[in-house]
Amino acid sequence: MTENYAISVMAEDRVGIIHAVSQKISDMGGDIADLSQTVLSSYFAMILLTSLPDGTGGEQLFAGLKSVEADLGVSLDISIKALDTLPTREPAQPSDAYVLTASGADRIGFVAAITGFCAAHGINILDLDTRAADGTYLMILLIDPGEADLTTLQQELRDFSAQQNMSVTLQHHDVFQATQEVRMPL
Fold it and tell me: Distance between CA atoms of 186 and 167, rounded to whole angstroms?
């Protein structure tokens, strides 16, 4: 029997955080079922799904993870949520995933506008990345449009794009990936 947890770890970025956390979980007999990590403006964020032997308990897990702070020289913000079961691993993306890109002048509400459009149209955001540079804001979203009619969705995106004064493009993930690949000569 196992105890299942969702764990989030945030900290000022340092080399070795993923190793220290994953090693501590391993030392406690834990298995990491899934992990996602990113660094935003020099701030590290990671979420893990893990199972540990029965009797480990959330307090023991928290104490174990906090114990790596001294080795790293950084304070870790740790949140632990007990789960009844670990979600089954689904494919990283559905076969009908699309990439939605949006760019325009960097302004307050940019992310809220795009994610609001998605929510209003029943579009599930699977992954999201943003960048701001030189007054321009860029969002790249991996989405599952669900049951949306793509022809209607494209028209509504054109209208939305004009209203919001931004450039918005929707492409099937396979097309996006093929157009973004860089081929190196052999």
Answer: 36
Give the burial string for 23-59 (b: 16+ CB within 10 Å, else e). Answer: ebbeeeebeeeeeeeeeeeeebebebbbbbeeebeee
Strand partners, 104: 137, 166
Distance between CA atoms of residues 167 and 112, nearest Å: 15
* Single-letter amino acid code for the residue at 67: S
Phi and psi torsions of 127, nearest 5°: -155, 150
Query: Which residue in the block uniquely carries the two structure tokens 């509400």?
Result: 109
pLDDT in tens, 67-115: 999 989 999 999 999 999 887 756 555 668 899 999 999 999 999 999 9
Element (H, E) at 7: strand 2-12
pTM metric for this prediction: 0.72
Helix (H, G, I), strand (E, B) or coil at 152: helix
Tokens of 171: 């492409």
